[in-house]
């Protein structure tokens, strides 16, 4: 199988449209990680993504009759641009179905190249189903986003370039994984020619379909998929990619939203490129691998798979970057409610930089403060400052990994009211688009008094809402209704951040 794919990769037709992208050194990261870090710059492709390679190679195989009818595909954005550019070059009509959550920059880019774009559904799976329906109705030729040998071969040309550009020893290559086409192409070529090189897939923790498939030994569908890195928001690994990956990939690294945000910053500082979150995914995995394995003095390569990001999302990414780099600790500290207590607290933390401080009067004896402190990466410094505060008799709750605290409480600033009897707190996520908040409210149950509401739009692919409701009876009935809405939610009534700052 590897030999067959290696031949297909060598024969792939990609360079009529794609370019050979550079392998850029990352000197800042290399020094920080004590390894030689290299970034394969697929963000420099004409469509700012590697997806052009597979799309063009697949369309180059079409017969004249198939080209005359036209092509169709489903895409979360980057594959759409690859298909639209390939169709433009070949004079083929292209129809592309995209989820409504697709960043506007990707939608406009596909339309600018002459493609007919249809927005349908809130997830890739819904767009895919609609595209399949249109294919049957209109007779279009299908250009799959990842689950096809020609797509895999086109993406595999990245590995062909990479090994030629870096003939010296390589410890590991890190590849972002959505449907698996890119990972399969890289794995097939590298393991055929250089089996000593390790290849790792990298997935978001909330969209790890390859990890699930490897653990269970079969392709399974994730019940829910996180949308923060929409370019890899795929619920099931592709069938053709999995045939390769199940045998030859060395493992999967999963990363958090904050770790992806930190990787976006890392790429910018070393290359001045602004990557999309799925584009920085592989670097986040590389950094985690170094941290977990303790490797030093090795050559490590990651693939910046794309740079198609809406500008307004950068605000949220920048906000989460410090946490992703473990440079900020978010703490809840209880101090005496008396004159001079805040000054004493500042004396205990010394010259540490305070990144955030929220406080509101609660009672005459104690004050709960929400504080952000600058710490050194790695986690040990955060533990040290917590121990330092506890040694000074301050009760401390570490909220650094608490999503409720990071997404909502820090913006609410300790608002309290005596009228919160029987209040139950729920945190929701829903696909973000115009009118999404109103649609969410339309689905909320009637007859329950809303005692708290916090919503913040920061340009992400999904909106986040915090709701407090006064539930006097039938909580099970309420949660049954919430289950039918179909949005992800968490009951947060027992969350320490809520207990300390909102009740």
TrEMBL record:
Family annotation (NCBIfam families): ilvA_2Cterm (TIGR01124), PRK09224.1 (NF006674), PRK12483.1 (NF009130)
Pathway the protein takes part in: Amino-acid biosynthesis; L-isoleucine biosynthesis; 2-oxobutanoate from L-threonine: step 1/1
Enzyme Commission identifier(s): 4.3.1.19
UniProt entry tagged with the keyword Zinc: no
Gene assigned in the entry: ilvA
Catalytic activity field: L-threonine = 2-oxobutanoate + NH4(+)
Function text: Catalyzes the anaerobic formation of alpha-ketobutyrate and ammonia from threonine in a two-step reaction. The first step involved a dehydration of threonine and a production of enamine intermediates (aminocrotonate), which tautomerizes to its imine form (iminobutyrate). Both intermediates are unstable and short-lived. The second step is the nonenzymatic hydrolysis of the enamine/imine intermediates to form 2-ketobutyrate and free ammonia. In the low water environment of the cell, the second step is accelerated by RidA.
Record CDD domains: ACT_ThrD-I_1, ACT_ThrD-I_2, Thr-dehyd
Key words of the record: Amino-acid biosynthesis, Branched-chain amino acid biosynthesis, Isoleucine biosynthesis, Lyase, Pyridoxal phosphate, Repeat
Organism: Kushneria phosphatilytica
Gene Ontology terms describing biological process: isoleucine biosynthetic process; L-serine catabolic process; L-threonine catabolic process
Subunit structure: Homotetramer.
Pfam families per UniProt: PALP, Thr_dehydrat_C
A GO term for molecular function: pyridoxal phosphate binding
Name of this protein: L-threonine dehydratase
Cofactor dependency: pyridoxal 5'-phosphate
Family designation: Belongs to the serine/threonine dehydratase family.
Gene3D superfamilies reported for this sequence: 3.40.50.1100, Biosynthetic Threonine Deaminase, Domain 3
